[in-house]
Write a structure and sequence with these properties.
This protein is an alpha/beta fold and 390 residues long. The protein has a single domain, classed as Alpha-Beta Barrel (TIM Barrel). The protein is built from 13 helices and nine strands. The relative contact order is 0.12.
Length: 390
Amino acid sequence: MTIKLARKLYLPVFTISLILSNGCSQKSHLASDSGIGKGLKDYYKAYFPIGVAVSTASLHGVDSALIVKEFNSVTPENDMKMGPLHPSEDVYNWKNADDIVNFAVAHHIKIRGHNLCWHAQEANWMFTGPDGKQVSKELLLKRLKDHIFAVAGRYKGKIYAWDVVNEAVDDSNDTTQVYRKSNWYTICNGPEFIEAAFRYAHEADPGAKLYYNDYNSEHPIKREKIYKLLKRLVDNHVPIDGVGMQAHWKLNDPSPEELRKALDEFTSLGLKIQITELDITIRMPRPRPAPGSIPAAQVPDSGYTPQAEARQVAQYKMAFDIFREYRKSITSVTFWNVSDRYSWLDARGGGLAGGAAASNNGPRVIRKAYPLLFDENRQRKKAYQAVIDF
């Protein structure tokens, strides 16, 4: 699809956007003359792009109008991940990824690519050799290179930044185990695949900014593991531009001190920061039952209570106050989904596992997380106001 056709296909969302913006009535400077028609991207124009994770369903109707009005960056939520995009050696499912790219190009929206190498939603065929046994390291790295060249090469000049490697750091409290023992790590007998992926990505698209992306990067033990990974890459002159901090956060996590510490450590390596997958669930973990006790019944979903709302407002305000302090180092902030109508966290117990929930194959109970700045009716929440009041 050419850009000209893409513009013709998606042009009506501008009309929808005008209707949506004219129908909004907000307090503070949302209601002032200077705030009429402004979106998040406009309030943060002097700071950094404001992005959102999208699916092809987001490209039509009211969601598309909201995206065009509020955001100036998009990230494909699932459609560029290896498994969905490249399900077998000679098959690529380009349509959804192409549709997202064409939508963004037509509306002059920046695009972050997500992701080129990950242990979840992976293409299982990659790990099996021609003889049906486990693939050799050499063939696995060749397949990884071919995949990266195909994907990054296809969107060269359109995708400005890539999450090259996603979540390669171990989650345990074992400080000696830095890397996740994924198929990639096991077959390569170490973290060689990480360095290789960045070199392949840079060769495929020398103009793209390259990021390592992970969750819980503010937690002290994991923060130090991520720092070790990043320092190794920097010391080995690997072409890496920055670190993506996913920011699947909770009402009490992270603390301001933990967030600043992580930002200071990562930027000390000369790297930029992107907040890549921001949402703040209102769900709070319950204490684990004592051994031998009867597990407590599932707590009913209490909804978006005033108490939870107030704490979420405060946590969003804290986060963006700090983001603005680090404006010289933070080069984008991306929300993970458009509104509370749909959040990937809803089917994962309200998001208590954070980024780890992405690879959780256990039972999924619908318990809404209400983690974003727009409510189920796509209206701006009080948290939105906290983010733009500065």
